Amino acid sequence: MNWVFFRRRLADRIALVCAALATAFGLFFLAWILWTTFANGAAAINARLFTQMTPPPGADGGLLNAFYGSVVMIALAIAIGTPIGLGAGTYLAEQGRHTRLAAAVRFVNDILLSAPSIVLGLFVYELVVVPSGHFSGYAGSLALALILVPVVVRTSDEALRLVPDRMREAAFALGLPRWKVSLQVLYKAARSGVLTGVLLGVARISGETAPLLFTALNNQFWSADMNAPLANVPVVIFQYAMSPYDQWHALAWAGALILTAFVLALSLLVRLVARGRHS
Amino acid sequence: MTEAPRHAAPGLAARALPGEAGIVLPAAPHGFSAPVAAPSPRSALPERLYRALTAGAAWLVLLTLIAVTVSMAVGGRLAFQTFGLGFITSADWDVVNGQFGAFVPICGTLVTSAIALIIAVPVSLGIALFLTDIAPVWSRQPIAVAIELLAAVPSIIYGMWGLFLFAPFMATHVEPWVNDTLGALPLVGPLFAGPPIGIGMLTAGIVLGIMVVPFIASVARDVLGAVPAALRESAVALGATRWEILRHVSLPYTRSAIVGAIFLGLGRALGETMAVTFVLGNAHDLSVSLLMPSNSIAAAIANEFTEADTDLYRSSLIALAFLLFIVTFIVLSLAKLMLARMDRSLGRTH
Fold first, then answer.
1. How far does A277 lie from chain B, in Å, by closest CA?
2. Which pLDDT belongs to residue B22?
3. Does pLDDT of A205 surpass 80?
4. B106 close to B316: Cβ distance less than 8 angstroms
5. Do residues A252 and A237 touch, judged by C-beta distance below 8 A?
6. Which CATH superfamily is domain B86-345 in?
7. Which stretches does DSSP call E strand in chain B?
8. CB within 8 A of B2, min separation 6: which ones?
9. How would DSSP label each residue in chain A?
10. Which residue of B has its CA nearest to A127?
11. Residues B210-217: what's their mean pLDDT?
12. Is the CA virtual torsion B171, B177, B180, B182 positive or negative?
C-alpha cells in the first residue's frame, strides 16, 4: 500500500464528503424553514383571513387590510421604480456605456443593491415623514421603490447590453433617432430581461419589513388612504409574531405562509422567464 | 456600440440657425456633411428628452447614495456633537437619563457577523465545490436553484422561524452541550458559558450565517466554474485529485473573487435587520458570553426608533444608521473591487 497515495486519496474523500455535507446543511435549513412556515401557516389559513381586518389582542380576525396595503404599496413602488430603473439602465447600456458617469453609477448601484434596507427606511423617514409630519403609505411606497430601482437598473443594463449591436446599426441605418431605436427596437428585444428584473425586484420588496417600519408604519383598521399610516403584511407579521397572543401568532404564520409562497413562486417564475430567454 | 452613427448630436442638431427658424441642421457624423435626412424639429425634442431623462435617472442613482449619506450624517449630528467619540466607545445606553453609548450594538453587529462568516464561508465553498465538481450533472441546476431560494425567503420568515423553532432548539439541544464542552475550556470558556436561553448572539450569528450562504455560494460557484479548463486539465494530467485541484489551482486562481464574495456576504450580514431583531434579544448589557442576549445596530433601530421620544434619542439611532451605512459602503466597495479584479483577469469587461 502506497502511503502517499492513500493519504492523498483520503484527503480527497474527506473534502468531497464535507462538500456534500455543506450542501446538505444548506438544503436542510431551506426544508426546515419552508416546512415550518407551511405547517404553521396552513393550520391558520381560513376564509376570515381574506375577509376581515387585523383584530385587537385576543380576538379573531383576518389580514384583509394588510393584504390591500401591501398590494397597493408594491404597485406604486413598481410605478415609481420601473421607469427610473429602466431609464438609468438605458443610459448605462446606450449613450453612456463607456463614460465615467456610467462606471460610477454601476459601482454605486451595486452597493445600493446590497445596502441595509433599514437605512433606506430611515432616509425616507427623514425625507418624507418628518416634513409631512405623519407616517404614510406614500412614504412606504417610496422606500420600497428605493430598493426596487437598483435591481431594475442592473438587470435592464445587462439585458440591453445583450442586444447585438447589429440591431442598433440596422436601426440607425434606417435613420431612426436614438429614442426611437431604444423604444421600438431595443426595449422589444430586451423585454424579457427587463421583465425579469422587475419581477426580481418585486420578489425582493414584497418581503421587506425594515424599510416599512418607520414609513408606512401599520394600521389596525381598514384604510385606503395612501396619505395615512397603511397596514401591510410584513409589519403585521413582525408585530403579531413578537406579541404574546396565540391568535396573533396564528395570523402571523398565515401571513408568513402567503408571503413566502408568493415570493418563492415569483422567484421560480423569474427563472422560467430567464430560461426562456436563453434557449 | 462601435460604429453607430451619432444621430443628432446634442447642441448641434437642436440649434436652429438664425433666420431659419424651425429648420434644423443634421449632425455631421465624422466631420463631413453626409446627405442624411434632417431630423425634423418634432423629432429633436423627443431626442433631447430621451437623453435628459435617461441621464437624469442615472444621476438619480448616484444622488440617492449621496443623499442617504448626507441625510444620516445630518440626522446623527446631534448625537455625535453631544457624545463625541464616547458615542462609539461607551456602553452606557440609558434612555431615561439621555445617555447614549453605542458600544453594545456595534459590538453585537460585528460579533454576529463574524459568527455568520465563520459558518457561511466553509459551507458556501463546500456547496460551490459540490455544485461544480461533485454532484451528478442532472442534479446541479435544481440544487443550485434550491440554494438560491434561501436568498429569496424574506428575512422576516427567518426571524419567525428563528424565534419559534430555532431558538428553542438551540436552548434545549445545542447550548447545554456548548456550555458543558466549550464552556469548560480555558481562555475561550467564558465565550460559551452562560444560561442556555436560545436567544442571543450565537443563535443570531448562526441564522445570519444561513442567510448569507446563498450570496457567497452563488458567486463562488460562478467563479469556480469560470476557471479555465486548460488549468484544470493540466492539474488532472499531473494526477491531482479534485481536492488538490481546488486547493492548489482553483482557489488560488479565484482568490480575489472569493474574497469579494465573502465581503459581499459580510455586507449583507452587517445590515440584516429583521431576522436578527427576532433572535438577538434587544439587550443593552455588555457580556462576554455569546449565549447572552445582545443588540445590533440594525435591531436597535428597528426596535427603538418608533419609541424614540427625544431628539437626542432619535439622533443617536440615526447616528448608528450612519455608522452602519459607512461601514457597509466600505465593505461592499471592497467586495466590488475584488470581484472586478477577477473579471478583468478572466477577460470579461463591462
1. 17
2. 41
3. yes
4. no
5. yes
6. MetI-like (1.10.3720.10)
7. 93-94, 99-100
8. A165
9. --HHHHHHHHHHHHHHHHHHHHHHHHHHHHHHHHHHHHHHHHHH--THHHHSPPPPTTS----HHHHHHHHHHHHHHHHHHHHHHHHHHHHHHTTTTTSHHHHHHHHHHHHHHHS-HHHHHHHHIIIIIHHHSS--HHHHHHHHHHHHHHHHHHHHHHHHHHS-HHHHHHHHHTT--HHHIIIIIIHHHTHHHHHHHHHHHHHHHHT--HHHHTTT---SS----TTS----HHHHHHHHHTSS-HHHHHHHHHHHHHHHHHHHHHHHHHHHHHHHHH-
10. B71
11. 96
12. negative
Say what the pLDDT of residue B64 is. Answer: 95
Which residues have CB under 8 Å from B276's CB, separation 6+? Answer: B112, B159, B204, B207, B208, B296, B298, B299
Nearest CA in chain B to A12: B243
Within an 8 Å CB–CB cutoff, is residue A147 touching chain B?
Answer: no
Chain-centroid distance of CA A255 in Å reads 17
Helices and strands: H and E segment counts in chain B? 15, 2
Distance from CA of B37 to the nearest CA of A (A): 8
Query: Of all residues in chain B, what percent carry a pLDDT higher than 70?
Result: 86
Q: What residues does A127 pair with on adjacent strands?
A: none
Query: By C-alpha distance, which of A69, A51, A70, A73 is closest to A60?
Result: A51
What is the rounded CA–CA span in Å between residue B245 and residue B233?
9
**pLDDT tens-digit map of B246-257:** 989 999 999 999
Contact A78, A148 (CB under 8 A): yes
- Which ipTM score applies to this complex? 0.93
Contact yes or no for B302 and A213 at CB 8 A: yes
Hey, how many other C-beta atoms are within 10 angstroms of the C-beta on B349? 8
CA B95, CA B310: separation in Å to the nearest integer? 9
Question: Mapped to the 3 state alphabet, what secondary structure does B113-139 carry?
Answer: HHHHHHHHHHHHHHHHHHHHHHCCHHH
Nine-digit cell at A147? 430598493
How does pLDDT run across B10-61, given as a tens digit for each residue? 433 333 333 334 444 444 444 444 444 445 555 688 888 999 999 999 999 9
Cβ–Cβ below 8 Å for A206 and B154: yes
Is pLDDT at B350 greater than 50 in this prediction?
Answer: no
- Any B CB within 8 A of A206 CB: yes
CB B169 within 8 A of CB B206: no
pLDDT for B9 beyond 60? no
The CA distance from B313 to B219, in Å, is 40
